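Researcher: Good morning. I'm working through a list of sequences from a screen, and I'd like to move beyond sequence-only analysis. For each chain I'm collecting a predicted structure so we can compare shapes side by side. This is the next one on the list. No need for commentary yet; just the structure.
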Amino acid sequence: MATGDASEPRLAKSYPANVVLVVLTLFPGLINTSAIALAAPVIGRDLNVAPDVAASIPLISDAALAFGCILAAELTRRVESRTLFFWLLTVSVATSLASAFAPAFPVLLTAHVVHGLVAGMLFVVVLPPLLTNFKSDKLSATASVIVPCLFGAATLGPVIGGLVAAPGTWRSIFGVEVIVALVAMVLARSVLAKRDAQGADQPIDWFALIASALGSVLVYVGIGGLAGNDWRDPFASIPLVGGLVVYAALIVGEARKEHPLVPVRKLATSLALIGTIATVIGSSTFSALTQSFQLTLLRIDELDPRGTGFAFWPEFLTAVAAGYVFGKLVTTKWVAINGATGLVFIGVAAVLARAVSPVDAHSVGWLCLIAGFGAGLSVSPGLFLVALSFERALLGRAIALLNLFRLTGGFISAPGVEHTIGSRATTHLRALDPALDPQVADRVVRAFVTGRTMPRAESLEPLKQALAYGIDQAYAIVLVLAIVGVVLIAALLLAGNVKLRAPDLERFDEGQPALEAPALA
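Model: Good morning. Structure tokens for this chain:
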């Protein structure tokens, strides 16, 4: 258990109080992103913007969240963590209030950018202490709680989004966020002990900060433009490619440094690399499946946002189940292949979804049980492989890097699959009507997919048939990505001749890596 002195807050050593604080701090913001995505058409009408413009809110929020993780890795080296926590939570309350009373779309968008940035920083500030301040006897319980907390929050998003998808009602999300944040602030006074910053003697890593910020912005701009346009549109493809190149430069540049902000070399030469692969591919494939299901229900089945959101309610049950299972496995030799198992479940869900396509609300419910369980085993558990593979002093910075990868994969996936579906649907629509002009077909399909006003009157049946074809292709892509993830993990384990071993919990309690392996990359 955490050590301290008589001046520590009275609940600093209380494990339940620390868990509750993490949940209160992170849970609402994670629900927010996926809830707003489904309620975007209603928000757009209330604030007089197009549905696809309103849909950019969660996308830019996730981009800011990804950079916020890296920014927090630098700030925690220089600012005492308790003080930083209260600063960040105060800003979070202010942005939630601004969102709740936003009179115009630019206000809501600006508030969300700042809110996402703060949420990413809070992730790095509050989560690592829960993993390190308590001994290994709490590790299973932490895994069983954190998986439903992090992944389960995202699964509740569509349900909440459907519930509040009515004029003005969507503002209640932010009102609840304010209340929860204030409760967290009160609890934190009794829970958080002062932790001096570690690493203030190191120079500020401006390269990592600038590269991660620039990469996040470019990827956001590119993928946002790609969702409703052809890939040949330079305003979409150039920023996206540029952002990915900047991210690659970030990885290479940090790997070459002796004292990098984010420990790229250690990540690439440990079992944490396996957790990263499972987390990024699990997040991407699950986001793609969710987007495909939502498009089918909204456009082909013509369900309203509320009916669409409620179709996803079984996902939270699978998040709880996945947390329970992972809690039993995290201290065993099976922890290293847990993520690969999750990817198998996601692949199975993609195969079944294509078999019953087009899905309806009932089939989405049971498909979510399979895909959600797989995502629960692959997305959040990567954090624990990082925690078990790194020394305590580097854990926060390693988690920041993992989150940058995870969030980027997640927020690229949904618009990316939307773009792919639109492209394949356009091809199929032209096959149905060869006389249709290619550019007109593309504009009509992308307007139908994104909910924009149609450029001309069109019969919906051919569009629905074309969209169903495009979604079938998306399921195939999800399956391929899941297989690639499993193959990569297997190849790394075999190439490194890694024997499956349970974590050395004594070393974990000493703050040393509990899982060690030969260099994997």
